[in-house]
Amino acid sequence: MMPSDTRAIEDAFYARYYARKPVTIVRGSGALLYDDKDKEYVDCTGAYGACIVGHAHPRIVQAISDQAKKLIACHGSTYNDARALFISKLRTILPNGLNRLFLTNSGAEAIECAIKVARKATGRRKIVAIKGAFHGKTHGALSATWGAKYRKDFEPLVPDFTHIPFNNIEAAKETITNDTAAVFLEVVQGEGGIRVPSKEWVALLGDLIRDAGGLLVGDEIQTGFGRTGKMFAGEHMDLKPDVLCLGKGIASGLPIGVTAASDETMSSLSVGEHTTTFGGNPVVCASGSATIDVLLEERLVENAAKEGEHFKTSLLRLMDNHRIIREVRGLGLMLAVETRFDVHGILTTALNEGVLILDAGRNVLRFLPPLCIDTDQIERVIGTLDSVLRREEPARLSSSVAKGNA
Ligand SMILES: Cc1ncc(COP(=O)(O)O)c(C=O)c1O
User: Fold this and answer.
1) Residue ranges lining ligand 1, Cβ < 6 Å
2) Which numbered atom of ligand 1 lies nearest the CA of 111?
3) Tens of pLDDT along 190-232?
4) Most buried by CB count within 10 Å: which residue of 124, 221, 233, 401?
5) Using CA positions, which residue lies closest to atom 7 of ligand 1?
6) Cβ neighbours of residue 233 under 8 Å, at least 6 residues apart?
Protein backbone atom coordinates (compact mmCIF):
# COMPACT_ATOMS: atom_id res chain seq x y z
CA MET A 1 0.00 0.00 0.00
CA MET A 2 1.38 3.42 -0.98
CA PRO A 3 1.28 6.05 1.80
CA SER A 4 -0.91 8.23 -0.45
CA ASP A 5 -3.52 5.44 -0.48
CA THR A 6 -4.15 5.78 3.25
CA ARG A 7 -6.63 8.61 3.16
CA ALA A 8 -8.33 7.34 0.02
CA ILE A 9 -8.91 3.93 1.60
CA GLU A 10 -10.15 5.28 4.93
CA ASP A 11 -12.36 7.84 3.19
CA ALA A 12 -13.83 5.16 0.97
CA PHE A 13 -14.42 2.36 3.47
CA TYR A 14 -14.19 3.51 7.09
CA ALA A 15 -17.43 4.70 8.74
CA ARG A 16 -17.58 8.49 8.67
CA TYR A 17 -18.03 8.84 12.44
CA TYR A 18 -14.95 10.95 13.23
CA ALA A 19 -14.37 14.60 12.31
CA ARG A 20 -11.03 14.08 10.54
CA LYS A 21 -7.93 16.23 10.64
CA PRO A 22 -6.21 16.31 7.24
CA VAL A 23 -3.10 14.44 8.40
CA THR A 24 -1.85 10.84 8.33
CA ILE A 25 0.11 10.05 11.47
CA VAL A 26 2.49 7.13 11.09
CA ARG A 27 4.83 7.22 14.09
CA GLY A 28 5.55 8.97 17.38
CA SER A 29 8.26 9.51 19.96
CA GLY A 30 7.63 11.07 23.38
CA ALA A 31 5.43 14.13 22.87
CA LEU A 32 6.17 14.29 19.12
CA LEU A 33 4.29 12.77 16.19
CA TYR A 34 5.34 12.34 12.55
CA ASP A 35 3.21 12.19 9.41
CA ASP A 36 3.67 10.10 6.27
CA LYS A 37 6.05 12.75 4.85
CA ASP A 38 8.07 12.72 8.07
CA LYS A 39 6.86 16.16 9.14
CA GLU A 40 7.10 16.62 12.92
CA TYR A 41 4.25 17.78 15.19
CA VAL A 42 4.10 18.60 18.88
CA ASP A 43 1.25 16.42 20.13
CA CYS A 44 -1.19 18.32 22.35
CA THR A 45 -3.86 15.64 21.89
CA GLY A 46 -2.12 12.62 23.45
CA ALA A 47 -4.47 10.41 21.37
CA TYR A 48 -7.41 12.02 23.21
CA GLY A 49 -5.61 11.62 26.51
CA ALA A 50 -4.70 7.95 25.97
CA CYS A 51 -0.97 8.57 25.63
CA ILE A 52 0.41 9.56 29.03
CA VAL A 53 3.99 8.28 29.16
CA GLY A 54 4.81 9.36 25.58
CA HIS A 55 4.62 7.68 22.19
CA ALA A 56 6.67 4.53 21.57
CA HIS A 57 8.22 4.56 25.03
CA PRO A 58 10.92 1.83 24.90
CA ARG A 59 9.77 0.25 28.18
CA ILE A 60 6.20 -0.06 26.90
CA VAL A 61 7.33 -1.40 23.52
CA GLN A 62 9.49 -3.99 25.30
CA ALA A 63 6.70 -5.05 27.68
CA ILE A 64 4.19 -5.47 24.85
CA SER A 65 6.66 -7.37 22.71
CA ASP A 66 7.79 -9.68 25.57
CA GLN A 67 4.19 -10.50 26.47
CA ALA A 68 3.13 -10.99 22.83
CA LYS A 69 5.87 -13.63 22.47
CA LYS A 70 4.50 -15.48 25.53
CA LEU A 71 0.69 -15.23 25.35
CA ILE A 72 -1.68 -12.82 23.59
CA ALA A 73 -5.15 -14.22 24.26
CA CYS A 74 -6.34 -15.31 27.69
CA HIS A 75 -9.97 -15.10 28.78
CA GLY A 76 -10.92 -14.02 32.30
CA SER A 77 -12.18 -17.52 33.04
CA THR A 78 -8.57 -18.64 33.67
CA TYR A 79 -5.95 -16.99 35.83
CA ASN A 80 -3.06 -15.14 34.20
CA ASP A 81 0.28 -13.88 35.54
CA ALA A 82 0.35 -10.61 33.51
CA ARG A 83 -3.17 -9.75 34.71
CA ALA A 84 -2.34 -10.52 38.35
CA LEU A 85 0.79 -8.34 38.19
CA PHE A 86 -1.13 -5.42 36.66
CA ILE A 87 -3.94 -5.65 39.22
CA SER A 88 -1.47 -5.71 42.08
CA LYS A 89 0.38 -2.64 40.75
CA LEU A 90 -2.84 -0.77 40.02
CA ARG A 91 -4.12 -1.35 43.55
CA THR A 92 -1.08 0.44 44.99
CA ILE A 93 -1.98 3.70 43.22
CA LEU A 94 -5.79 3.60 43.55
CA PRO A 95 -7.54 5.58 46.31
CA ASN A 96 -7.93 3.69 49.59
CA GLY A 97 -10.76 1.24 49.87
CA LEU A 98 -11.18 0.61 46.13
CA ASN A 99 -9.81 -2.88 46.41
CA ARG A 100 -11.68 -4.88 43.83
CA LEU A 101 -11.60 -4.11 40.15
CA PHE A 102 -12.97 -5.18 36.81
CA LEU A 103 -11.09 -4.70 33.54
CA THR A 104 -12.85 -3.69 30.32
CA ASN A 105 -11.82 -2.56 26.84
CA SER A 106 -12.87 1.09 26.94
CA GLY A 107 -13.96 3.89 29.20
CA ALA A 108 -17.60 3.57 28.17
CA GLU A 109 -17.55 -0.07 29.27
CA ALA A 110 -16.11 0.92 32.65
CA ILE A 111 -19.17 3.19 33.00
CA GLU A 112 -21.52 0.38 31.91
CA CYS A 113 -20.12 -1.79 34.68
CA ALA A 114 -20.51 1.04 37.21
CA ILE A 115 -24.17 1.53 36.26
CA LYS A 116 -24.93 -2.16 36.82
CA VAL A 117 -22.94 -2.27 40.07
CA ALA A 118 -24.64 0.89 41.39
CA ARG A 119 -28.11 -0.48 40.65
CA LYS A 120 -27.50 -3.96 41.97
CA ALA A 121 -25.57 -2.86 45.09
CA THR A 122 -28.27 -0.40 46.16
CA GLY A 123 -31.34 -2.17 44.80
CA ARG A 124 -32.34 1.21 43.29
CA ARG A 125 -32.69 2.44 39.69
CA LYS A 126 -32.33 6.21 39.73
CA ILE A 127 -29.05 7.74 38.58
CA VAL A 128 -28.21 11.42 38.88
CA ALA A 129 -25.70 12.74 36.33
CA ILE A 130 -24.44 16.24 35.59
CA LYS A 131 -25.21 18.59 32.71
CA GLY A 132 -22.18 19.03 30.46
CA ALA A 133 -20.67 15.67 31.45
CA PHE A 134 -19.33 13.07 29.05
CA HIS A 135 -19.25 9.39 30.00
CA GLY A 136 -19.11 7.63 26.64
CA LYS A 137 -21.41 6.70 23.76
CA THR A 138 -22.65 3.15 24.40
CA HIS A 139 -26.32 3.14 25.40
CA GLY A 140 -25.86 3.03 29.17
CA ALA A 141 -22.95 5.48 29.22
CA LEU A 142 -24.81 7.71 26.76
CA SER A 143 -27.71 7.87 29.21
CA ALA A 144 -25.31 9.51 31.68
CA THR A 145 -23.67 11.69 29.00
CA TRP A 146 -25.19 15.14 28.54
CA GLY A 147 -25.91 16.84 25.23
CA ALA A 148 -28.56 16.67 22.52
CA LYS A 149 -25.91 16.28 19.81
CA TYR A 150 -24.95 12.89 21.24
CA ARG A 151 -28.34 11.72 22.48
CA LYS A 152 -31.29 12.96 20.47
CA ASP A 153 -31.43 10.39 17.65
CA PHE A 154 -30.97 7.42 19.97
CA GLU A 155 -33.75 7.91 22.46
CA PRO A 156 -35.27 6.28 24.38
CA LEU A 157 -32.06 5.74 26.30
CA VAL A 158 -31.80 3.78 29.56
CA PRO A 159 -34.59 5.04 31.85
CA ASP A 160 -34.25 6.77 35.23
CA PHE A 161 -31.29 9.07 34.50
CA THR A 162 -31.68 12.72 35.55
CA HIS A 163 -29.19 15.52 34.83
CA ILE A 164 -28.62 18.37 37.27
CA PRO A 165 -26.76 21.62 36.54
CA PHE A 166 -22.98 21.70 37.14
CA ASN A 167 -21.90 23.34 40.42
CA ASN A 168 -25.53 23.97 41.44
CA ILE A 169 -26.13 23.32 45.13
CA GLU A 170 -29.93 23.71 45.19
CA ALA A 171 -30.53 21.29 42.31
CA ALA A 172 -28.31 18.69 43.98
CA LYS A 173 -30.27 19.01 47.26
CA GLU A 174 -33.61 18.69 45.46
CA THR A 175 -32.68 15.78 43.20
CA ILE A 176 -30.54 13.43 45.30
CA THR A 177 -33.01 11.49 47.46
CA ASN A 178 -33.43 8.20 49.27
CA ASP A 179 -34.24 6.42 46.03
CA THR A 180 -31.08 7.57 44.18
CA ALA A 181 -28.75 4.67 43.39
CA ALA A 182 -25.79 6.83 42.41
CA VAL A 183 -24.43 10.19 41.41
CA PHE A 184 -22.10 10.02 38.40
CA LEU A 185 -19.47 12.76 38.46
CA GLU A 186 -16.95 13.42 35.67
CA VAL A 187 -14.39 14.90 38.01
CA VAL A 188 -13.20 17.57 35.56
CA GLN A 189 -15.47 17.89 32.52
CA GLY A 190 -13.32 17.26 29.44
CA GLU A 191 -15.60 17.20 26.39
CA GLY A 192 -17.68 19.82 28.20
CA GLY A 193 -14.80 22.33 27.83
CA ILE A 194 -12.45 21.59 30.79
CA ARG A 195 -14.70 22.62 33.67
CA VAL A 196 -13.34 22.18 37.18
CA PRO A 197 -16.09 21.88 39.83
CA SER A 198 -15.97 23.73 43.13
CA LYS A 199 -14.70 21.84 46.17
CA GLU A 200 -17.87 22.75 48.08
CA TRP A 201 -20.20 21.31 45.47
CA VAL A 202 -18.19 18.09 45.17
CA ALA A 203 -18.25 17.70 48.97
CA LEU A 204 -22.01 18.33 49.00
CA LEU A 205 -22.62 15.68 46.30
CA GLY A 206 -20.67 13.19 48.41
CA ASP A 207 -22.55 14.06 51.61
CA LEU A 208 -25.97 14.00 49.96
CA ILE A 209 -25.57 10.67 48.18
CA ARG A 210 -24.01 8.95 51.20
CA ASP A 211 -26.71 10.24 53.55
CA ALA A 212 -29.24 8.92 51.04
CA GLY A 213 -27.58 5.49 51.07
CA GLY A 214 -26.41 5.65 47.44
CA LEU A 215 -23.00 5.63 45.75
CA LEU A 216 -20.76 8.35 44.38
CA VAL A 217 -19.29 7.22 41.07
CA GLY A 218 -16.22 9.19 39.94
CA ASP A 219 -15.38 9.21 36.24
CA GLU A 220 -11.61 9.78 35.99
CA ILE A 221 -11.32 8.23 32.55
CA GLN A 222 -9.78 11.41 31.12
CA THR A 223 -8.37 12.91 34.32
CA GLY A 224 -6.79 9.79 35.84
CA PHE A 225 -3.15 8.78 36.19
CA GLY A 226 -1.55 12.17 36.57
CA ARG A 227 -3.27 14.19 33.86
CA THR A 228 -4.20 17.03 36.23
CA GLY A 229 -0.90 17.05 38.15
CA LYS A 230 -2.19 14.65 40.85
CA MET A 231 -2.56 10.89 40.38
CA PHE A 232 -6.36 11.45 40.38
CA ALA A 233 -8.13 14.77 39.87
CA GLY A 234 -10.35 14.00 42.87
CA GLU A 235 -7.31 14.72 45.09
CA HIS A 236 -7.63 18.42 44.19
CA MET A 237 -11.07 18.46 45.82
CA ASP A 238 -10.87 15.71 48.48
CA LEU A 239 -13.23 13.50 46.49
CA LYS A 240 -13.76 10.04 47.96
CA PRO A 241 -15.60 8.04 45.30
CA ASP A 242 -17.35 4.77 46.15
CA VAL A 243 -16.83 3.59 42.59
CA LEU A 244 -14.08 4.85 40.27
CA CYS A 245 -14.09 4.52 36.47
CA LEU A 246 -10.76 4.71 34.64
CA GLY A 247 -9.42 4.18 31.15
CA LYS A 248 -7.51 6.11 28.45
CA GLY A 249 -3.78 6.18 29.26
CA ILE A 250 -3.23 3.42 31.80
CA ALA A 251 -2.19 0.89 29.14
CA SER A 252 -0.34 3.54 27.08
CA GLY A 253 -2.88 3.45 24.26
CA LEU A 254 -3.94 -0.20 24.23
CA PRO A 255 -7.71 -0.52 24.80
CA ILE A 256 -8.67 -0.57 28.46
CA GLY A 257 -11.20 0.50 31.06
CA VAL A 258 -11.23 -0.13 34.81
CA THR A 259 -14.11 -0.10 37.29
CA ALA A 260 -12.95 -0.16 40.93
CA ALA A 261 -14.88 -0.19 44.23
CA SER A 262 -14.90 -1.93 47.59
CA ASP A 263 -15.11 -5.70 47.62
CA GLU A 264 -18.65 -5.51 49.01
CA THR A 265 -19.89 -3.11 46.32
CA MET A 266 -18.29 -4.94 43.38
CA SER A 267 -19.46 -8.29 44.73
CA SER A 268 -23.09 -7.24 44.30
CA LEU A 269 -22.81 -8.69 40.77
CA SER A 270 -22.44 -12.44 40.72
CA VAL A 271 -20.61 -14.85 38.40
CA GLY A 272 -21.70 -14.45 34.79
CA GLU A 273 -23.65 -11.22 35.27
CA HIS A 274 -20.94 -9.05 33.75
CA THR A 275 -18.04 -10.34 31.64
CA THR A 276 -16.28 -9.44 28.39
CA THR A 277 -14.11 -11.53 26.06
CA PHE A 278 -11.06 -9.26 25.97
CA GLY A 279 -11.17 -7.67 29.46
CA GLY A 280 -7.88 -8.29 31.32
CA ASN A 281 -6.06 -9.25 28.12
CA PRO A 282 -2.42 -10.17 28.96
CA VAL A 283 -0.79 -7.83 26.41
CA VAL A 284 -2.90 -4.90 27.60
CA CYS A 285 -2.09 -5.79 31.21
CA ALA A 286 1.66 -6.05 30.51
CA SER A 287 1.49 -2.61 28.91
CA GLY A 288 -0.46 -1.38 31.96
CA SER A 289 2.17 -2.67 34.41
CA ALA A 290 4.96 -1.01 32.43
CA THR A 291 2.94 2.21 32.22
CA ILE A 292 2.58 2.35 36.02
CA ASP A 293 6.34 1.71 36.44
CA VAL A 294 7.25 4.49 33.98
CA LEU A 295 4.68 6.89 35.45
CA LEU A 296 6.21 6.49 38.91
CA GLU A 297 9.91 6.15 38.03
CA GLU A 298 9.95 9.10 35.60
CA ARG A 299 7.86 11.19 38.02
CA LEU A 300 5.40 12.06 35.27
CA VAL A 301 2.65 13.15 37.65
CA GLU A 302 5.05 15.72 39.07
CA ASN A 303 6.04 16.72 35.53
CA ALA A 304 2.37 17.23 34.65
CA ALA A 305 2.03 19.58 37.64
CA LYS A 306 5.23 21.52 36.85
CA GLU A 307 4.89 21.74 33.06
CA GLY A 308 1.13 22.24 33.41
CA GLU A 309 1.80 25.33 35.51
CA HIS A 310 4.29 26.62 32.94
CA PHE A 311 1.86 25.87 30.07
CA LYS A 312 -1.04 27.61 31.81
CA THR A 313 1.05 30.68 32.72
CA SER A 314 2.22 30.93 29.10
CA LEU A 315 -1.37 30.65 27.83
CA LEU A 316 -2.43 33.37 30.26
CA ARG A 317 0.39 35.56 28.88
CA LEU A 318 -0.97 34.95 25.38
CA MET A 319 -4.37 36.08 26.62
CA ASP A 320 -2.86 39.48 27.49
CA ASN A 321 -1.94 39.95 23.83
CA HIS A 322 -4.95 38.42 22.10
CA ARG A 323 -8.47 39.75 22.52
CA ILE A 324 -9.78 36.62 20.83
CA ILE A 325 -9.02 34.65 24.03
CA ARG A 326 -11.83 34.83 26.57
CA GLU A 327 -10.53 32.48 29.27
CA VAL A 328 -7.73 30.04 30.11
CA ARG A 329 -8.62 27.21 32.52
CA GLY A 330 -7.74 23.71 33.65
CA LEU A 331 -5.44 21.71 35.90
CA GLY A 332 -2.02 20.20 35.18
CA LEU A 333 -1.80 19.12 31.55
CA MET A 334 -5.56 19.25 30.99
CA LEU A 335 -5.95 22.82 29.76
CA ALA A 336 -8.38 24.87 27.72
CA VAL A 337 -8.39 28.18 25.92
CA GLU A 338 -11.88 29.53 25.36
CA THR A 339 -12.00 31.92 22.42
CA ARG A 340 -14.61 34.42 21.28
CA PHE A 341 -15.05 32.58 17.96
CA ASP A 342 -15.09 29.15 16.34
CA VAL A 343 -11.68 27.48 16.78
CA HIS A 344 -11.77 25.40 13.62
CA GLY A 345 -9.51 27.72 11.59
CA ILE A 346 -7.02 27.96 14.45
CA LEU A 347 -6.80 24.16 14.72
CA THR A 348 -6.17 23.76 10.99
CA THR A 349 -3.53 26.49 10.79
CA ALA A 350 -1.76 25.19 13.92
CA LEU A 351 -1.75 21.70 12.39
CA ASN A 352 -0.15 23.05 9.20
CA GLU A 353 2.49 24.66 11.41
CA GLY A 354 3.30 21.50 13.32
CA VAL A 355 1.09 21.56 16.42
CA LEU A 356 -1.80 19.14 16.95
CA ILE A 357 -4.51 20.54 19.25
CA LEU A 358 -7.99 19.26 20.18
CA ASP A 359 -11.22 21.16 20.46
CA ALA A 360 -13.91 20.79 23.12
CA GLY A 361 -17.00 22.31 21.57
CA ARG A 362 -17.15 25.15 19.03
CA ASN A 363 -14.97 27.74 20.74
CA VAL A 364 -12.62 25.85 23.06
CA LEU A 365 -9.07 24.69 22.30
CA ARG A 366 -8.18 21.68 24.46
CA PHE A 367 -4.66 20.57 25.36
CA LEU A 368 -4.04 16.97 26.54
CA PRO A 369 -0.36 16.37 25.71
CA PRO A 370 1.57 13.31 26.90
CA LEU A 371 2.69 13.93 30.48
CA CYS A 372 6.35 13.82 29.38
CA ILE A 373 6.05 17.04 27.35
CA ASP A 374 8.95 19.39 28.15
CA THR A 375 9.46 23.14 28.49
CA ASP A 376 10.90 23.59 24.97
CA GLN A 377 8.02 21.73 23.35
CA ILE A 378 5.51 23.85 25.28
CA GLU A 379 7.34 26.99 24.11
CA ARG A 380 7.02 25.71 20.54
CA VAL A 381 3.26 25.33 21.04
CA ILE A 382 2.94 28.80 22.54
CA GLY A 383 5.06 30.39 19.78
CA THR A 384 2.96 28.70 17.09
CA LEU A 385 -0.30 29.65 18.74
CA ASP A 386 0.87 33.24 19.11
CA SER A 387 1.71 33.54 15.41
CA VAL A 388 -1.49 31.72 14.33
CA LEU A 389 -3.61 34.05 16.48
CA ARG A 390 -1.78 37.13 15.14
CA ARG A 391 -2.87 36.11 11.66
CA GLU A 392 -6.37 34.79 12.44
CA GLU A 393 -7.44 37.39 14.96
CA PRO A 394 -7.69 40.63 12.95
CA ALA A 395 -10.00 39.03 10.37
CA ARG A 396 -12.19 37.46 13.09
CA LEU A 397 -12.42 40.63 15.16
CA SER A 398 -13.11 42.92 12.19
CA SER A 399 -15.80 40.60 10.80
CA SER A 400 -17.47 40.46 14.21
CA VAL A 401 -17.30 44.27 14.58
CA ALA A 402 -18.95 44.48 11.16
CA LYS A 403 -21.68 42.15 12.46
CA GLY A 404 -21.91 44.21 15.66
CA ASN A 405 -21.08 41.35 18.04
CA ALA A 406 -17.51 41.99 19.25
C1 LIG B 1 -14.61 11.39 31.06
C2 LIG B 1 -14.81 10.31 30.04
N3 LIG B 1 -15.60 9.27 30.34
C4 LIG B 1 -15.81 8.28 29.46
C5 LIG B 1 -15.22 8.28 28.22
C6 LIG B 1 -15.46 7.16 27.26
O7 LIG B 1 -14.28 6.44 27.05
P8 LIG B 1 -14.08 5.57 25.72
O9 LIG B 1 -13.97 6.53 24.58
O10 LIG B 1 -12.79 4.81 25.98
O11 LIG B 1 -15.25 4.67 25.61
C12 LIG B 1 -14.39 9.35 27.87
C13 LIG B 1 -13.78 9.41 26.53
O14 LIG B 1 -13.39 10.43 26.03
C15 LIG B 1 -14.18 10.40 28.80
O16 LIG B 1 -13.40 11.43 28.51
Assistant:
1) 48, 106-108, 111, 134-136, 186, 190, 219, 221-222, 247
2) 4
3) 999 999 999 999 999 999 999 999 999 999 999 999 999 999 9
4) 221
5) 107
6) 187, 188, 220, 223, 224, 227, 239, 331, 334
